[in-house]
Design goal:
- By secondary structure, the protein is an alpha/beta fold.
- The protein has 2 domains: 136 residues, Type I PLP-dependent aspartate aminotransferase-like (Major domain) (Aspartate Aminotransferase, domain 2, 3-Layer(aba) Sandwich), CATH 3.40.640; 95 residues, Aspartate Aminotransferase, domain 1.
- Helices cover 44% and strands 15% of the residues.
- The chain has 9 helices and 8 strands.
- A hairpin with an 8-residue loop joins strand 5 and strand 6.
- Helix 8 runs antiparallel to helix 9.
Length: 248
């Protein structure tokens, strides 16, 4: 049973709502007893912002107070670590379990890792089997994952630089950046009221720039291993021209 808790613009959970979920309805058999708090860093929908270590310590204390586990959805946990200039272990060490992707910013073709105690991993393996088992012959993919982990610092720092340069460039062209400056490798922007959004995305795609419209008018661009410095410059130019065409 999942119970979503509203988050604030900085990606943190609304404190009062979280406390209500942890304390109310425990004696009512119609409701599931709280077992885990799950947070995400970097927080995708809030513009790829990292959750501060001090905030995670507060969530850890709250979880301990109420006897529940803390899980960190850290698909981009290494982006969060580099953005805050802290080791990833300082973030993951506050959680009972943490998940991160070997793909996305790290550049491996596929794969994710769940890290936790032996007891939790044993439970996770059993649930995985219940949901359909695992993947066989994963040695080649595992090798790619190891290579990705060895290149974290240089690779992700470059992605963050590309995101900031892209955001600055499209802002100069009149595109409204929503997370200015971007904290890590994700840029959210709007292309103006009355913009023909589908037409804008078609213009971008025709020039080799893939972006995602998460909701009407709000577009996400993510920088990763496949985007060079030159690509970021070209992408910004394409977005500026596509926005002008679609709003003209």
């Amino acid at each position: 049973m999942l119970r979503p808790v509203r988050n604030l613009p900085d990606g943190t959970l609304e404190p009062q709502r979280l406390m209500e979920e942890l304390t109310l309805n425990r004696s009512d058999a119609q409701f599931a007893i709280p077992a885990m708090v799950c947070v995400e860093t970097t927080h995708n929908m809030c513009g790829g912002v990292p959750l501060a270590v001090e905030y995670l310590k507060q969530i850890r204390a709250t979880a301990d107070e109420h006897g529940v586990l803390l899980h960190v959805d850290g698909a981009r946990i290494f982006n969060a670590a580099i953005a805050m200039n802290v080791p990833a272990s300082q973030i993951g060490g506050l959680a009972d379990s943490v998940q991160f992707c070997l793909s996305k910013g790290l550049g491996a073709p596929v794969g994710s890792i769940v890290a936790a105690s032996t007891e939790i991993i044993d439970q996770a393996r059993r649930v995985r089997k219940m949901l359909g088992g695992g993947m066989r012959q994963v040695g080649v993919l595992a090798a790619a994952g190891l290579l990705a982990l060895e290149r974290i610092d240089d690779r992700l720092a470059a992605d963050h630089q590309h995101a900031r340069a892209f955001a600055e460039s499209i802002a100069e062209g009149g595109v409204r950046v929503l997370n200015d400056p971007p904290a890590a490798n994700v840029v959210f922007f709007r292309i103006g009221n009355g913009t023909r959004h589908a037409e804008f995305l078609r213009h971008c795609a025709a020039q080799g720039v893939a972006a995602l419209e998460l909701d009407p008018g709000r577009v996400r661009a993510v920088f990763h291993n496949g985007v060079s410095t030159e690509d970021a410059v070209v992408a910004a130019d394409v977005v500026r021209r596509a926005a002008a065409l679609a709003t003209g």
